[in-house]
Amino acid sequence: MNMQRKRLHCFGSSCQLTLHASATEAEKRFALALNELSRIETKFSSYHPESIISKINQAAGSGFFTPLDAESRSLFDFASALWAESNHLFDPTTRLLQDCYDDGGTLKATLQQIKGMLTLVGWNKLQLTDEGAYLPERGMLLDLNSCIRPYALDAVRRRLVREGVEHALIELDHDAVSIGKQADGANWLLGLRHPLGSRTAVNRIKLNNRGYAMRGDFENRILFDGENFGRGLSPVDGFPIPGMLSVSVVADTALDACGAASIARLKTEQAAINWLQKLGLPWMAIDRKLNCHGPLAPR
Description:
Layout: E1 2-10, E2 13-21, H1 23-44, H2 52-58, H3 70-85, H4 111-118, E3 127-129, E4 132-134, H5 145-162, E5 168-172, E6 175-179, E7 189-196, E8 199-206, E9 211-216, E10 222-224, E11 227-229, E12 246-251, H6 254-265, H7 269-279, E13 283-286, E14 292-293
Antiparallel strand pairs: 1-2, 2-5, 3-4, 5-6, 6-9, 7-8, 9-12, 10-11, 12-13, 13-14
Organism: Pseudohalioglobus sediminis
Pfam families: ApbE (PF02424)
GO molecular function, one term: transferase activity
């Protein structure tokens, strides 16, 4: 068996699959993985015009509910759990607020415009009934992409395991999952980028049979009122949340890691550290002064 690699494009990002198999078997596994990734992207991505999320957005304020199957409801339940655990700061309806800022993070909307947009924000406004899901006000937007990507990786891992795959690593943007170790017993390694003075360095971590997620990106931070902030926007006032610039977590699944990293990034810095320590998972957080914290931080 040789190590085989395949690079795919999905969810607007590059996805790399690495596994140990013959060339023929690897192509079959790659096709299976691509089919599952494409299925989930088509079904849930807000960028796909026929996805469930897009249909919910298009029907906002119309009075029509979008039907949800069991898989869809499980994702909405997960998002609701994050919303509750984060004291309502994790809010997939804040997608609308991103339009208030340019690519560099500079505010381009007036305070009055932000105030108006905030009337269209609020996960608690989403109606989930036996009929399905409904956003009650025209102009509201829902975006679950940050949860859907790790969910898709976990789904691919389950499919590959059922097919007998014992050694694999799947990486998509800031998320990853692995199956076992490499065939020769070596560890699967991920590179965590972190600040080192005025430069950026890479810290290698082991990821064997686990999931990984990073939320936030210290390299994509914004300068707001003379201070560093991440890209997370508050559903309360529409301004950047003064939490960690980025949080990386290793857990049993990529979705579990996503949940932990998402919640921690929205807490104040010391509260995030305390909360992550109580979880007992491997983690690294980068604060607004570019200091690294946690057991995965470079030593």
